[in-house]
Amino acid sequence: MIFTGKRVSKPEYISLSEEFWGGEKCAIDVKMKMIYAGKDNDIISQYVAFTKVYDEQVKLYGRTREAVTNTINICKDRDVLKEYLSSREKEVADMMMTLFDEEQVMRAYVESERKEAASGILGKENKQ
Fold first, then answer.
1. What distances in angstroms separate CA 11 from CA 4, 5, 32, 35, 119, one per listed residue?
2. pLDDT in tens, 48-69
3. I want to staple 80 with a disulfide (CB 3.0 to 4.6 A). Which of 20, 33, 59, 75 is the partner?
């Protein structure tokens, strides 16, 4: 997995159950090798640069089409994924906007699961 965020520790591997569910047992757990940056101007380093520009634009404009469009234009100007973005600009913009929608649904699901788990724990405590 390519990690593009900010993280104090940079482990070589992470487990999804440990990272997102506090180490609770789950039906399937994935242990992933982490990649934090590429070399020189390879595709990984360009992707990381793209995500950093995107994060900056989201801070300025929120999760909007303007943030996506600005990200694409800035990256093309900086020669980051330029060829790919030039040939597939509309496709990339549409895909990023779709990811906003999916991310919002996933956040709502996780939040509802947390609330349900918390109410279950509180319910058990109240019965005792």
1. 14, 13, 10, 10, 33
2. 899 999 999 999 998 888 999 9
3. 75
Report pLDDT digits (tens) over 77-114.
999 999 999 999 999 999 888 877 666 767 777 778 87
Please check whether residues 65 and 89 belong to one and the same domain.
yes
Residue 52 domain-assigned (yes or no): yes
Q: Tokens at residue 13, please?
A: 């591997």
CA 12 – CA 100 distance, rounded (Å): 28
- 17 and 47 fall within a common domain: no
Domain that holds residue 21: 1-36
Helix (H) or strand (E) segment spanning residue 124: helix 89-127
pTM value?
A: 0.60
Structure-token pair, residue 45: 């380093």
SS3 46: helix
